[in-house]
Amino acid sequence: MTQRPRFHLAFPVHDLAAARAFYGELLGCPEGRSSPEWVDFDLYGHQIVAHLVPGKAAAPSDDHNPVDGHEVPVPHFGLILAWDDWTALADRLRDGGQTFVIEPYVRFKGQVGEQGTMFLYDPSGNALEFKAFRDESLIFAK
What are the residue boundaries of the VOC domain, all occurrences included (predicted)? Predict the structure, then answer.
């Protein structure tokens, strides 16, 4: 199998210690390089970088879109995980006391595009979605 390209995402945070606790400890992302202004994390093989933005409000955006009866935060980022990894992450987050914007559930049940999904905010108000498909060939199915 050909390895997929890795993505890189830089995002603003109000507190690097809080970012380290959330991404490093709660999500289990190994930390890479860092400086007093940013921290690299390994998010399942992808490079995400928390950049300290002084004065950033630790609040989520008010923007949402209705999807499958839920108000999905926009913008958001995340990953499509293998089903077992998704359920393990959901358990880890619940066990860690994480509050969800949208609790883990199966969206579009019985339809093309059926997927497990969950949404949460990091301590700086950045929205994340983690999802999984039982059949990854349906990720882009119409």
Answer: 5-133
- pTM of the predicted model as reported, rounded to 2 decimal places: 0.90
Q: Which residue has the tokens 């999500």?
A: 27
Residues 6+ apart with CB under 8 A from 70: 102
Backbone CA torsion sign across 83, 88, 91, 96: negative
User: What's the fold here for domain 8-138?
Assistant: 2,3-Dihydroxybiphenyl 1,2-Dioxygenase; domain 1 (3.10.180)
**CA trace torsion 76, 41, 26, 133 (10° rounding):** 50
In the chain, what are the domain boundaries? Answer: 8-138
Per-residue pLDDT tens digits for 1-16 = 457 889 999 999 999 9
What are φ and ψ of residue 63, in 5° steps? -85, 130
The total of other beta-carbon atoms located within 10 Å of residue 104's CB is 20
